[in-house]
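DATA SHEET
Item: assembly model
Revision: 1
Owner: S.N.
Input lines:
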Amino acid sequence: MKTIKIITTVVVVAIVIVAGALVYEHFSGHSTNNSQNSLTPVTSIALVNNGSTTMINLSKANSFVYAKSANNGVFTIHGSLSRIVSLIPSVTVTLYALGSYQKDVKGVDQFSTYPNPSNYDIPVLTIGESSLPIEAIVNLTPDAIMTTTGYFTTQEINKVVNVLNIPYFVFNPETVAQIENTNTILGELTDTAHNATIINAWMEKNIDEMSNLTKNITNESSIFYDLGHGSSGIYTAGNGTFINEMFQIDHIKNIINATGYPEVSRELVYKGNPGFVLIDEYVNQSRFLKDFPNLTAVKDKNYTTVLNDSFIDEPTFRTIYAMFWIGSVVYPSHINMTDITAFNNFTHFDLSPAPHVGIYG
Amino acid sequence: MKFNLKYGSRPFKAIVITIILFISIIFSLFLGPVKIPLPVVARIFFSQIPLVGNFAHWGFTGVEYDIVVLVREPVILGAVIVGAALAMGGSSVQSVFRNPITEPYIIGISSGATLGAVFALSTQVMWFGAYTLQVLAFSFSIVVMVVIYSISFRSGRVPPMYFLLSGIAISLFLSAIVGLMLFSNKRLESEAFAWLLGSLSGVTWAEDAVVFTIVLISGIVLTSFSKDMDALQMGEHHAQSIGVNVERAKLISLLVTTLGVSAAVSISGLIGFVGLLMPHVSRMLFGGSNRIVIPTSAVLGAIFLLLANDIARDSLSYTEIPVGIITGLVGVPFFMYLLRRISRGGYVT
């Protein structure tokens, strides 16, 4: 009986201490400047500019923002964002295409290698496996951090958002439509909306062009994309991803029916018997060939390694390049890289490297 | 009580390590990926002190103030609190189990806290706002420890061997559940991995305030039970023969240890070797009495983790290495050295 009493007392004391501290923090705001101490994703942004308010819906791009100053689910921005730290290459590339890079981006992560930040004197922040370089970020006095899901710890994000009061944008577009919406949203946030409209029109034009090129293909090929070898199988892109949508526009059937980026067993790859195999640049091609010597695509040498996966794996307007390149390697008699609408109209953007240069490294 | 402050005496050594702790704290304030001049850091530090602050609120920018006050200071204080909690927990557990190579994680704290953390990550519940992970890690480790204690409870007593073996079995079981949760949601791997490696980089003042309170209470209670733990160190029969309520002493020591260590782990993740090594260093310096070992190992643990965290923060420009990696790298050679000392009878455990 005594034992139970002691256990109960200690557990109750622990609960009271934690609850008391949390309540104290919540109501006093002593150490966190009245922070809400929560990480609630906000999808509505009110962009106030010259007296007029534009509402932006981030959910259209499968995205959201954590912001301490959000009120009733709306985060208000006055003017536009002008001090952005981009910790994800897809956002960096898009901001560059929009013409916002030089004027608004104040820091990028080490994976944002295009455009080369040293050419623009933009500091590179080294992010770890899941470590946010908080001190270096604060030093850049950003008005927004932009990244994607699953990068940093909740504890670090909380510190950045609720203690340091820096809005933390999470972009996670998963379809071509969401990529276009991301362009639009980033355009509105950085006062480059007109350029976003042009880029989206270019994307649509090329998607239509690809549909025209593939509509007469009767013998549809199938594909498997090896994204990396995990502990129990191979990572690949499945349903609901922009990569899969790219295959669909190309008139190529993905042999994987699972959703997202699943780790699939080798048996499933054999069972799917893809007509073509795409191997990510960071995957050892010889390992794939060793694992699947009897796969028809391997025997027929219908496989290739992507030499610059940023075109294929990053959800940006550059997906269009990848779409044409994949189409041209799977259906060489139907699709050619020259079929892609030229970028001549966009000379005021630097969209280099040219698609073929980028993909072939 | 008469203090002997002669060179080499215990009070002298205690004062020396306390001074080293304060110097380490000040030294740590100047370290970080953003280089801030020493006078600026000093001014920012003094600007926070009531009254004195009125004379030192100039000569620094808002950014410098934020970096020192909101980024560095809570991390430094967090390192001190977590280091102290782990070391005190190690002293307590080693005494209760009469085993020099145990550490607080052996009683299920690490597996329980990991389960709580991974549960919070995988379910994305926000029951306690931004602190859900920390609160769940803390609560789960206490629940797991209570479960292990209950399983080991036989005929009115808890044999230490039963407790240790039950702890290992339950820990392995929970690790399997954690593995399953991570396997089913690969996106969690990186955050869970970071938590398992231990890091103080996201610690806030609010977390420090809560954990400091718990660890302080835990330390006071443990120190007040030091005589009972000294007796337990000599064996349960001996303790009983001198009038110690053995089961009560064990239960309170373990529960209070769990409270303190769980609170610490909830903000830092799993940081190894502090709880294993620092009690031994303390015993080498101060002898075997828990009345001295518990508070001094707290100071030594704080110094060790603080300096390890300095290395973690400053060894790479712009980013941090998880501090658990540093304590492991430093801890293993030191542990081997200790094993040699113990095997030669170098000091009394």
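QC remark: The first helix of chain B runs from residue 10 to 29.
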